[in-house]
Amino acid sequence: MADLVEQSKRSAAFAAVDKHVSPSVRVLGIGSGSTVVYAVDRLLELKNNNQLNPKLVCVPTSFQSKQLIIDAGLQAVDLDDLPILDDTQGGFASIDVTIDGADEVDSELNAIKGGGGAHLREKLVANASNKLVLIADYRKDSQVLGEKWSKGIPVEVSPLAWRTISRQLEHMPCMQKGSRLFESEHPAAHLRQAVRKAGPVVTDNGNFILDVCVGNIYDPPAVERLFKMIPGVIEVGIFSNMAAEAWFGNNDGSIVCRIPQSEIKKRE
């Protein structure tokens, strides 16, 4: 079973890289997580075959992805350093494409991210990109967020007031203007605890993470906005209306590429 999952991740990552990373790509965003490892493996193969832009620069979304980029012999550049890379062309207005993993993706390609605690930087890089492409295995493919991912919405918060923010999140109404936003009438917020370290997880940005369990999420954009209104919330691990494509590797070896369901209906 584990081998099938890893193979499905590899297949999705390789397919996405082969489609979206051509020699014309000058700036590439590199996401975080276990599936992204395979994307960088493919980039290394392309580099060794001289199939990448020789001036390619990669923008990491976490400590992990920066190390992957460096270990592959690629150039890592922080997001805010992009405008001063090439004075002859006035700098870069955006990243050509970002390839990133996801914890769950719904039918509209809204995603839950942040299982690895990197969703703040992931969202900053995604927002600065012309295109966001998600890669994952078949276990992350859902119709509704929360259907398969049961660990809650990752919410990066200021350590100064994490208890207060936690209480406020737990009192969030599941209904708004007569519409149900999420399933649970009693959200539960849990401070994420570290492994092999006493105390909470501390993000690359020095913050804490609350995992907020709300059940199925029926209106991801509204929930994202609602959570972000709380002072002290740094970023919410819901990526709504950001991804252009999602690639899923299946357990039978096949690959599925999806676009938002609403886009499919427009084309019919």
Could you describe the 3D structure shown?
The protein has 268 residues and is α/β, with parallel strands linked by helices. It is built from seven helices and 16 strands. Helix 1 (2-20) packs across helix 2 (34-48). The model has no long low-confidence stretch (mean pLDDT 94).
List keywords for this structure.
268 residues; seven-stranded mixed sheet; alpha/beta; 29% helix; 7 helices; 22% strand; four-stranded antiparallel sheet; globular
> What is the 3D shape?
globular
Main pleated sheet:
7 strands, mixed
- What class do helices, strands and sheet pairing give? alpha/beta
The portion of residues forming beta strands comes to 15-25%
Model regions low in confidence, pLDDT < 50 over at least 5 residues: none
Briefly, what is this?
This protein has 268 residues and is of the alpha/beta class. It has 7 helices and 16 strands.
How does the SSE layout of this entry go?
Blueprint: H1 2-20, E1 27-30, H2 34-48, E2 57-60, H3 63-71, E3 75-76, E4 97-101, E5 104-105, E6 111-112, H4 119-127, E7 132-137, E8 153-157, H5 162-170, E9 175-176, E10 179-180, E11 188-191, E12 208-213, H6 220-228, E13 233-236, E14 238-239, E15 245-249, E16 255-258, H7 261-267
Parallel strand pairs: 1-2, 1-4, 2-3, 4-7, 7-15
Antiparallel strand pairs: 5-6, 6-14, 8-12, 8-13, 9-10, 11-12, 15-16
Helix pairs in contact: 1-2
